Amino acid sequence: MAPKRLLTEFGMGTSLRRQDYTEAAVRAVKDALWHNSINLAELFGRPKGDMLIDVEIGVQAPDRVNSAAILAVFPYGQPKVTVVKGGLDVPRTDGGKPTVIANAAISVSLEVGA
Fold it and tell me: Which keywords are on file for this protein (predicted)?
């Protein structure tokens, strides 16, 4: 069986003053997850652990994101995290650290069919 993508959700997260790329990414993932309450695995009569979860995070400094912190957000399933250049750093007028905006795309797949 080949995995079939069944759901994609998007989210955004920020770090307003600390320039914490990991925290912005975690907030983006949580934002995406909180947008739905679809019990996808149960819909197909499968355990939640069977879900293949592809997480793509976009931030301006991908090397400053701790992927383990993102993985820790998921209580079940098989998450895989990819961090790419994206998102946005918004300069502050007072000269402080820029506001960090992270974007997340979460796709959930299951092995379905014969």
Answer: GTP-binding, Nucleotide-binding
- Model confidence pLDDT, tens digit, residues 26-79: 999 999 998 776 778 888 889 999 999 999 999 999 999 999 999 999 989 999
Strands (E), the chain: 3-15, 52-59, 78-85, 88-90, 99-111
60 within 8 A of 88, measured Cβ to Cβ: yes
Q: 110 forms bridges with which residues in the sheet?
A: 4
Burial pattern 76-96, b for ≥16 Cβ within 10 A else e, equals ebebebebeebbebeeeeeee
Question: Which DSSP category does 77 fall into?
Answer: S
| Residue 18: strand pairing partners | none
Structure-block tokens of residue 54: 């592809």
Would the pTM count as exceeding 0.90?
Answer: yes
Location of structure tokens 């914490």: 20
Please choose, from the candidates 12, 6, 10, the residue with its C-alpha nearest in 3D space to the C-alpha of residue 27. Answer: 12
